[in-house]
Write a structure and sequence with these properties.
The protein is an alpha+beta fold. It contains 9 helices and 11 strands.
Length: about 280
């Protein structure tokens, strides 16, 4: 497992500054990532270990990460619901998630205990033959497991974001060539939702199959745009985004094209148009 590639991929998925690290454990060297903006010893690592036909990712807090754990416990009801939804989605993808809070294993991830929290232990494990396969297969599985673990942790953390974001003209509904800035809800741009969507659907365009990493090399590795099946303008204040069902990865061209209509074209419909045009060209 390559810790540098792991950090690069997760940085692109979460749009966070992450650095790779190697840690010596009783089972040998394990690779992991940590957020560069939370200094040691007050932060945490996501540590990935490869075993016999299994890979697991673990949340490892630093020695003085008590404030961080307390912040997890102070999470809002909305973020706790998102945590439970994500956990169910990751479990459905073949992972086994074990969470322990204040020394007690949680029987359900849909009902987390009230604050204060002094201990938070999270483990995501998957049985896989990738450990006995190619290096590329092992790396992909490592990225998926680490993504699931990091996404769950970040869901509960109070991430700071700028509410003002530039929206392309095809998303804002303005005439061609126009440019503006609009205010959008924070959940709409959540890096956790983005990463969970990619973990479920892959980092390639779900319409045309374009892969930024294949075409642009390391510069595009892990990059993809995320499309909302439900337009942001139709989301109410209490709308909870389901990153597995509500979001889909699209390349820039397909993303722009689905927004050429109002409401946006369904990605499956665009895929049919592309297939029809390809068949016409070949004939």
């Amino acid at each position: 497992m390559n810790e540098i590639k792991l950090a690069e991929t997760l940085s692109a998925r979460f749009r966070l500054d992450l650095t790779g690290c190697l840690v010596s454990t009783k089972d040998g060297l394990s690779c992991g990532v940590r957020a560069t903006d939370i200094p040691t010893p007050n932060g945490f690592m996501i540590l990935v270990t490869s075993g016999w036909k299994s890979i697991e990712a673990e949340f490892v807090p630093d020695t003085y990460a008590g404030e961080l754990v307390r912040a997890l416990g102070d999470s809002l009801p909305h973020t706790r619901r998102v945590f439970g939804s994500l956990a169910e989605a990751f479990n459905a993808m073949g992972n086994r998630i074990v969470l322990s809070i204040n020394g007690s294993v949680m029987p359900t991830l849909l009902d987390l205990p009230p604050a204060p929290w002094s201990q938070f232990q999270l483990n995501v494990r998957r049985l896989t033959d990738a450990t006995n396969g190619s290096e590329a297969a092992l790396q992909i599985c490592t990225e998926e497991i680490a993504t699931a673990c990091l996404a769950l942790v970040l869901t509960l953390l109070p991430l700071e974001e700028d509410d003002i974001v530039a929206i392309p003209m095809y998303e804002s509904g303005l005439p061609e060539g126009a440019c503006t800035k609009v205010t959008v809800n924070r959940y709409e741009r959540s890096p956790v939702n983005r990463a969970a969507c990619i973990a479920a659907h892959g980092a390639t365009c779900n319409v045309c199959g374009f892969d930024f990493g294949v075409f642009y090399g390391s510069l595009g590795h892990g990059y993809i745009e995320i499309h909302h099946r439900t337009p942001v303008s139709q989301m109410g204040a209490n709308y909870i985004v389901d990153p597995i069902r509500d979001l889909v990865p699209l390349c820039s061209n397909c993303h722009a094209t689905v927004h050429r209509t109002d409401p946006p074209l369904e990605p499956d419909a665009l895929a049919l148009i592309i297939a029809k045009n390809r068949n016409t060209t070949l004939s």
